[in-house]
Structure formats: structure tokens, C-alpha cells
Amino acid sequence: MGGFPTVTDVALAAGVSRQTVSNVMNSPGIVRADTRERVEAAIKELGYRPHASARRLRTRRSSTIGIRLDPMIDGISGSVLDRFLHALTEQADAQGLRVLLFTATSPEDEITQFRRLNDGADVDGFVLTSTFAGDPRTRWLIENGISFVTFGRPWGVDDMNDPQHLWVDVDGWSGLQDATRAQQEAGARRIAYIGWPSPSGTGDERRRGWYDAMTLRGDVSASDLARLEVVTTDGVSQGTAAMQRLRQQAGQVDAVLCASDSLALGAMIANPERVPVTGYDNTPVAAAIGLSSIDQAVDEVAAGVLELLTGEFGGKVHGAPESDEPRHRLIAPRLVVREFAAIPMDVAR
Amino acid sequence: MGGFPTVTDVALAAGVSRQTVSNVMNSPGIVRADTRERVEAAIKELGYRPHASARRLRTRRSSTIGIRLDPMIDGISGSVLDRFLHALTEQADAQGLRVLLFTATSPEDEITQFRRLNDGADVDGFVLTSTFAGDPRTRWLIENGISFVTFGRPWGVDDMNDPQHLWVDVDGWSGLQDATRAQQEAGARRIAYIGWPSPSGTGDERRRGWYDAMTLRGDVSASDLARLEVVTTDGVSQGTAAMQRLRQQAGQVDAVLCASDSLALGAMIANPERVPVTGYDNTPVAAAIGLSSIDQAVDEVAAGVLELLTGEFGGKVHGAPESDEPRHRLIAPRLVVREFAAIPMDVAR
DNA sequence: TGAATATATTTGATCGATCAAACTTTTCTT
DNA sequence: AAGAAAAGTTTGATCGATCAAATATATTCA
């Protein structure tokens, strides 16, 4: 006996036609109950599985979403995207969606991949990560009417009310606001912030969360507040340097918030006074070291992405039905508090 | 003008038949040069892309490999698999192969997924990670004649010469041997090892690497050697505890080798004397902290996996052509030496 | 040159499912 | 109970590519 059973085999076994078998699988509602049962029994008995490629050829949809696997950047923060990928795959699976990976060396190359995957009916839509202002990829996808959702807001004009595409993002502002408040409630007054140089969409947002919470409380003068801030690029050693600079310029510091776990880890290294340090991303490193951190809630992000991709808008803003549904999801991150019992570090030599 | 151009459109434009167009794409050698050029021009002009699903339906192959995205374990060592995934995707892409992800909650569930993906012609084969002795998944795949390669050796009888399936693994023995030798050459004599309880395929292998190098050198007595070894389960805090135990039972220690970066990180925490510590996996944490570590060379593993999957054996041992080619690849890991300048740590309180 | 061989190209059938429309059976209406 | 409407089921065509076999063209050799 040749290969696997097909619809025709099932139909024959159940004494119905191909189409009825197809209906049982795709629109069970329109098949009479007793017929349906008969067909289902036949499917089970023969161990029938629909041939995905044949279905795709006909329906022109693949139940697959494509996502680019970004090159590992520094490895530490990179793990957020990996966790997102895990969450996305898990939740997509639960909805019968598949996740197809691809890589690309540049935005242009990525567009080539978009075209290939889309033309070949390999995927129904894409999930984009690491978007940036003026991203050519989103423009191309919009122009070609391809479904997609980004993890990361467009950072354009009025992206809340009139976004050019669907997006999900984590509210860094609220994350840092929460972290600042938590320290304030624990009795800290002089709370410092180590962040990235402006302009940086996410970076500016996080800084503003700290800044707003500090000015709202109002117990630190404006000039002191300026001294409590250090700007640097991302990285562990940069964090160490920033911490040292902070100690010089700010005098006493009750707590330190950082724009990333890399910076936070670096800050911890130059932290003999054991000032509480809070990172961002809640990476494995933070967990291992016992560092408080702001968790991006990647599972909620993944859920939001899938909702937008498969929901009312079908992954599109242009050409989608009129609706008052929001075209984005802004996820509030969770502050994970840890007592950093295990790691008192001294400055090297 | 409806959708995308098809072979027929291209054929019409080039003044040839469908099949010739197909030949240009799949066996260019049998098409006369001038015809080929004409067809290629038409393809380019029309922007033709083959419809992947249609091709798969006909050829019964998908140019896609499936891999399960394991649930994150502790996050630190988990990143090895993520790095492997990156490497695999990148190299698969270069060969025109796609990588499809899926998740599963148990080996049985995973088998269900195997069946679904295979029956639906979604994938041509699988890559398995985290295999274990008596793994039901490999048995099922063999029984069903499905192509696959494992990252991780079978740990069965004579898996070198008569493996039940194709595999790629990293030679932990040689990794620890190298690390031990490196310390010996740097002047260390009393080199300790913190490892996992036996039986553990990988764990025992790594331990043996240290043990063999130590006995070969022969400058440490057998009883001392026993005192230089601590056995514990994996984890950061276990590493710290192990290091403390080691100090008590072994007296002076010149260097410490660990079965994982988690253990190594833990060991570093209880390491005021700044004894050199070497981990395993070369995770981002090791890089960030400045910890020597043994790198699993995931890119070579990925290359090996693809070679076995697409090569002579086609991902199968049974039913594959007779051949003297090895049915596995044993990759030598690379020792990455770091001066841990930045992190002298004290024991907490 | 003409038959024999090798090379190049075309035609018809097919992969397995779903769509669209035709057909049959059941249910509702008056 | 007859006709209309609704519900359920079947048939033929189709998605886009490749296979297998047939046909056309070019090359070789006696």
C-alpha cells in the first residue's frame, strides 16, 4: 500500500464524498451530526492527516508565520528575543500556527526573504523585532499588502492613535516608574539612573519613567537629579565605568536603576556599598546573580502579537475593516524584586 | 492581472513550455544555453518566484527541517541551544533550507508533532536536541523511516561504529582534557573538578577528561585526586556550596574546572583567593564576568548536523546506502581563556 | 547522405486538498 | 399536500509545480 491516506481514502471508507470529509475538517457545522461521526471515525481509523502543502496550494494560506532570528548581539540582552521566540512558538502552536525561522544580513536582504517566503505561500505573515525609525522593512511590507505585526512601536508621529502598522510593545516608562516607586517606598531618596544616550526610542522612554517618578515625588532638586543621571552606551564594562562616575559626581546614592541588565551587572561590580541595583530585561544573568530587574513579560507580548495577526485586522492596518479596536498593545512590564544576597563585589584591584 | 506569475506565464513570455522553465530552475544543465538565458530573462522580468507549496505537493519534499524549541531550563545553560538554533538557521538558510519550530510538552507529545509535521509534508527531517538513553523519540523516528540527526550522541552500545542513528556531539572529554592541560602548563598542580552525579552521559565524559589528564601527568596522588572532586547537581548556588566544600576537603587548590557555567559562576562567588575557574558552555554570563570557559562550537555542530541530514545518508542509517563514511561527527570544543580581571568576589556575609 | 544516437523540448497526467456550483434530501409554509 | 426554502451532499475544476513519456532537433558515424 502506497503512502498516507488521502481525503479520497477517508471518503471511501466513510461512504461519503471527498468534499464532505473536507467539510468535516473545515466547517463541521454544515455537516449532519451522524455523517460527521462516521467521517471522524474513518479519519481516526485510517490515521488520516491532511497534507499541509496541498491545502496551502489551494487555500493560499499556510498557517505559518515567519520571524527573523536576529544575530546574537551581546548575548545578554539578546536573550529577551529568544524568550519572546519561545513564548511565540508555544502560543502559536496552541492555535495551530507554525513558526518559520529565517535569517538575513541586512534590512534589504530581509526584504528579499520576505518576498520569497510570501510569494511561495510559505507564510501568512511576519513578526518583526528590533524595528527602528524609518525602517524600510515596514514600508515595504505595507506597500505590498503583507500582514505583519511588530514587537516594538513605530516611534513615529502619533503611533498610538494612527499607527501605520500594528504593533505590540512593552511600556518601559511604566516599568521604570514602578521600579523608582518601589525604591522610594523602601525608603530611598537619591535614586540614580544609568541609561543610554538620546535619541533612543526605548531608552528615552525608560529614562522618562524614572524622571517622572522622581519629579512627582519632588524631594530631589533639579540639579541633584541631573547629577544622579549617567549616560553611556550599553555593556557590562560601561556599566562599571558609569557606576564609578556616578559615585564621583553624585555623592551619596540610595539606589541605582539601569536601562539594561548588562549595565546593571556592570554597576554591581563597582558597588562595594551594596546599593540596590535594578536592571532591565530580567535576563538569566539577573536571576543568577540575584539582581532586581524589570521583566518584559514576553508571554503577554507574544499573545498580543498573535491576537493582532490573526484577529480583526488580520495583521494589516491598510485595507483592514473599519474598527475602533486598538491597533496596538502596550504591555506593562513586571518588576521582579530580588535580594542580592549572594553577590557583594569589590572593585577589581 | 491576478496574483503572482506562474511557470506558465514565464513559459509564455519566453516562448517555451512550462517544463523547460521548470528545468531551468531544477536542472539547468539539460537546457541549451540560449534557451536558458531567455527563460532567465523572463523570470527576472516578471519577477517570478516558484510557489513553494505547489512544488512540495508534487515533489513530496519541503526543504524544511523541524526542530523543537525546548522549554527554557535555567536560562543560563539554555542559551547553548539557542546559539545552536541561530547557527543552524543561518547555515540552513545558506543551503536553501528552512527551519520550522515547534514545541511539545512531553516526548509523547513530541512524537505526535513529528507525525503531524511529517504527514503534512511540512518538513523533510528533524533535528533532535537533548536526547537521552532509551529515548522513545529516536525509536519512533527510526521505525517510521523518518530522517533525523541528533545533537547529542545516543549513549548506547558502540555508538561510534554502529550507531542506530546519525548524530553530532561535542567531545566533552577533549574539552576538559584541554582545560586541564592549559592549567597545568600555567603552573597549576592541584586542579579540582566540580561536576554532576553519575550516571550522566555528558557529565561522566567531561569528568573523565579532567581525570585522564590528571592521572597522565601523575603528580597528584589518587587520594588527593579524590579530594579534589566535588559532585553536585547543576546550579549557581550549588556551585557556591561545592566551592566551599572543596576548600574544606581539599586544602590548597590551584585551579577549578566546572561541568557548567552555572556551577562556575557559583564557584566564583565563593572564591576570595581568586583561584582560576573554568566553566563549560561559554555562555554570555561567562563572557560578561570574564570567566574562562569551554565553547561548544555550535556552528561546527550545526554544519555537521546539516551535512548528515542532507548528505549521503539523507538523515537515515537504516535504509541508507552502504558507505564507509562516518555516521557521526564528534566536534572538539574550544577553550576560551579569559583573565577574570573584573570580578573578585567575597563570600556573602 | 542517411540511419543511429544523443540532446533538447513539449505534452498530458498527477500530487491532495478546497472552491464553486449542481444536485438531492429535509424542513418549512400556507 | 404541493411548492418554496433551507440544509446537506456530491461533482468537476482548479491551485502551481514536477514527473514520465513522447516528440522534435541536433550531432555522430559508417
From TrEMBL, chains A, B:
<keyword id="KW-0805">Transcription regulation</keyword>
<dbReference type="InterPro" id="IPR000843">
    <property type="entry name" value="HTH_LacI"/>
</dbReference>
<protein>
    <submittedName>
        <fullName>LacI family transcriptional regulator</fullName>
    </submittedName>
</protein>
<dbReference type="InterPro" id="IPR010982">
    <property type="entry name" value="Lambda_DNA-bd_dom_sf"/>
</dbReference>
<feature type="domain" description="HTH lacI-type">
    <location>
        <begin position="5"/>
        <end position="59"/>
    </location>
</feature>
<dbReference type="Pfam" id="PF13377">
    <property type="entry name" value="Peripla_BP_3"/>
</dbReference>
<dbReference type="Pfam" id="PF00356">
    <property type="entry name" value="LacI"/>
</dbReference>
<keyword id="KW-0804">Transcription</keyword>
<dbReference type="InterPro" id="IPR046335">
    <property type="entry name" value="LacI/GalR-like_sensor"/>
</dbReference>
<dbReference type="InterPro" id="IPR028082">
    <property type="entry name" value="Peripla_BP_I"/>
</dbReference>
<keyword id="KW-0238">DNA-binding</keyword>
